[in-house]
Design a protein that fits this description.
The chain is α+β, with helices and mostly antiparallel strands and 209 residues long. The protein has 2 domains: 2-71, MutM-like, N-terminal (N-terminal domain of MutM-like DNA repair proteins, Alpha-Beta Barrel), CATH 3.20.190.10; 83-173, Helicase, Ruva Protein, domain 3 (Orthogonal Bundle), CATH 1.10.8. It has helices at residues 60-65, 67-71, 83-90, 100-103, 115-125, 138-158, and strands at residues 2-4, 10-14, 20-25, 36-41, 45-50, 54-58, 192-196, 199-203. It has a 3-stranded antiparallel β-sheet with strand order 1-2-6. The radius of gyration is 19 Å and the shape is globular. It starts with a strand and ends in a 6-residue tail after the last strand. The relative contact order is 0.11.
Length: 209
C-alpha cells in the first residue's frame, strides 16, 4: 500500500501474510499481542498497522526506483484496467504457461489479488487451479478475464455492506473460501481444502474442471 503525504513523502507498506490494518477512535489503544508498526491519526480516528514486515518512507525519487514497485503488475482496482488488458496479460509469453494456482498469487501478474480472491475467481469460472491460460479456449479466457476484475472490485466495494434482500445479507460473500466440507451452491458437491503454492486452497472437485 502507498500512502501519500502532502510534504511529498510516501509511506510504503507491505502486509505480507501477517500485517493488518485497524481503524479505531482517535484516543483508543486496542489490547493486542500484535506489534504496532504505524499509527496515523486525525482528530477523530486513527488507523493502525500491526505486524507488517516491510515499511519504508520514500521520497519521490525513491518511489520511482523501488524494486518491488518496479515489478508489480497493474492494480485490479484501477478502473482504467479492462478485461481485454487482463486477457492480453494472461496470453503473454511471461504468464501464458503458468498454472493459475501460483500465477494468481504473483503480484507481478496483477496487483491486489490474494488467496481468497484466487479461490473465488476460479470457482466463479468453474476452473481447477492447475490450468494455464495457454490451455483455455476463448470462452473460458473471456470469462476468466472478466472475473479477475469483477470479483476483486465487488469485494472491495461491498464487503461489509448488507442488503436484507440478498442471501445471507452481505453483497459479497465467500462461495468456497473457508467452506471445506460444505455443499457447493452451484452443483451440490462437497467443497474440498488442499494446499497449493503453500497456501490453503478451497474448491469444488465436482464442478471445477
Amino acid at each position: 500500500m502507498l500512502t501519500h503525504f502532502s510534504h511529498n513523502l510516501t509511506l510504503y507498506s507491505h502486509n505480507q501474510l501477517y500485517g493488518v490494518w485497524r481503524v479505531v477512535e482517535a484516543d483508543e489503544q486496542p489490547q493486542t499481542t500484535r506489534v504496532l508498526r504505524v499509527r496515523l491519526q486525525t482528530a477523530d480516528k486513527a488507523i493502525l498497522l500491526y505486524s507488517a514486515s516491510d515499511i519504508e518512507m520514500l521520497t519521490p525519487e525513491q518511489l520511482l526506483t523501488h524494486p518491488f514497485l518496479q515489478r508489480v503488475g497493474p492494480d485490479v482496482l484501477d478502473m482504467r484496467l479492462t478485461a481485454s488488458d487482463v486477457k492480453a496479460r494472461l496470453l503473454s509469453p511471461k504468464f501464458r504457461n503458468r498454472q493459475f494456482s501460483g500465477l494468481f498469487l504473483d503480484q507481478a501478474f496483477l496487483a491486489g489479488l490474494g488467496n481468497y480472491l484466487r479461490v473465488e475467481i476460479l470457482w466463479e469460472v468453474g476452473l481447477a487451479a492447475q490450468h494455464k491460460a495457454s490451455q483455455l479456449n476463448d470462452e473460458h479466457l473471456e470469462a476468466l478475464s472478466h472475473a479477475l476484475l469483477d470479483i476483486p472490485r465487488l469485494s472491495y466495494n461491498t464487503r461489509g455492506v448488507v442488503d436484507e434482500n440478498t442471501h445471507h445479507g452481505a453483497l459479497f460473500r465467500f462461495k468456497v473460501f473457508h467452506r471445506a466440507g460444505k455443499k457447493c451452491e452451484r452443483c451440490g458437491g462437497i467443497i474440498d481444502r488442499i494446499m497449493l503454492s503453500s497456501r490453503p486452497f478451497y474448491w469444488c472437485p465436482h464442478c471445477q474442471q
